[in-house]
Amino acid sequence: MIIIGELINSSRKSVKAAIEAKDADTIRKIASDQAENNAAYIDVNAGTFVENEPEYLAWLVQTAQEAADLPCAIDSPNPKAVEAALKVHKGVAMINSISLEKERYDNLMPLIAGTDLKVVALCMSDEGMPVTVDDRLKIADKLVNDLLKSNIALENIFIDPLVQPVSVDKTYGTGFLDSIEALTEKFKGIHTACGLSNISYGLPGRKQLNRAFMIQAILKGLDGAIINPLDKGMQTAITTAEALVGRDDYCMNYLKAFRAGLFE
Amino acid sequence: MIIIGELINSSRKSVKAAIEAKDADTIRKIASDQAENNAAYIDVNAGTFVENEPEYLAWLVQTAQEAADLPCAIDSPNPKAVEAALKVHKGVAMINSISLEKERYDNLMPLIAGTDLKVVALCMSDEGMPVTVDDRLKIADKLVNDLLKSNIALENIFIDPLVQPVSVDKTYGTGFLDSIEALTEKFKGIHTACGLSNISYGLPGRKQLNRAFMIQAILKGLDGAIINPLDKGMQTAITTAEALVGRDDYCMNYLKAFRAGLFE
After folding, report:
1. Complex ipTM value
2. Which numeric CATH code is attached to A92-230?
3. What are the structural domain ranges in chain B?
4. Within an 8 Å CB–CB cutoff, is residue A240 touching chain B?
5. Computed from CA positions of residues B231, B237, B240, B246, in that sequence, does the dihedral angle turn out positive or negative?
6. B174 to chain A: which residues are within 8 Å by CB?
7. How far is CA A255 from CA A158, A222, A238, A239, B52, in A?
8. Spatial CA neighbour of B30 closest among B8, B12, B48
9. A252 touches chain B (CB under 8 A)
10. Per-residue confidence (pLDDT) for residue B263, from 0 to 100
């Protein structure tokens, strides 16, 4: 599982305060904690600072990479912010995220085209959130083909079919899961990624639901996720599910995690 | 989920002792505990008593049904024991289980044919445990068609593709899960059932693995399971997974269980 650590996000109070105070220690600590817990990318988001987003996002990239020897997922639809962040980024960054929404698409595609950047591609258009598997496949088809035409390699694309709350419609869980399976089959070699927590919106016991949904999504082929790497229950769910579906030779990873006391 | 409560089994020390002492209170308590925790069938097994199995199995049926207003799953390959148990059973029992193994098949088929009994049908033959999905489908095909020809209704059959340990071969988990899906699709209206705990044989953290496997099996269509109904973690896994896959209208069951404090 390719884990994108979600914790450096200005929508979190402590992170917002740290950014305002240019408190590098706090940001570095969050970055290194995530790196030590299997993150492959450190997501950085300064979206609540509309005016200063470019400056702050670049600072977050620099600060996070001082503490974690990992690439960042640059989490913004603002091309100025993405550009500023890319300028200081070391290694190959991930862009989080492009979609078929016209403004976002027009802003980000020129920055992405012809690069070896990793790209999260949301199955979203100006017509709103997709509902059925077919809706998602239609958007994905156009978006993935556009990215390929712009010389992004298929294996650098992380397609996100967008999780919607099962409390709103009982088919939303399976709609997402079937989309993961269909996209993985249709575009051989593509990655998938998503935030899962939307599945449990409006229900109690959200952690339990999110973990069970992760266990099901891994069965359907999900291989990337935007999560809190410090959530031991979620990490247990991932390790366990990967062993069960045969993604873990001789259950070595599972046994290592169990013996290291990483399980909740 | 159709839960078959597995706790009245003479391979458990306390149950064996209770049977030997004709301690009806202990058996009644185990039966009513399971009934209060969503069991649909009370499994009864006196298999360790070779000689007295018929007498003891009948006594278990009578005693369990004194305490739980539920049918029993009569768990024996011995036709004399099954016959004795059926003689005293109230309501429509489940037979656990027939298979294509010649001796078991020849012993049990005459007792089952033409009845409205529920039947657990194991994907097992004298050639041993099936390994691939195709192996299972081949056995299932013959077994299900034999049962249908013997006037067992399809909806009374609980087909069990047999779980094997993922520690032995990393494809054994998905082999089982894909079989559940294939059998559910091939025989519309059939039920599936199994004991899950074999999946985690040879690994530590078995409860965690068993629950995650249940969550995946429900996604693939599993609708029956032989479990310990008092295992709150397993019950949480079932309720959560059923809500996620749309088997729980308006998440009512999930909300009810959560509010009743049934979640681990």
Report:
1. 0.94
2. 3.20.20.20
3. 1-72, 92-230
4. yes
5. negative
6. 219, 245-246
7. 29, 22, 13, 9, 43
8. B8
9. no
10. 81
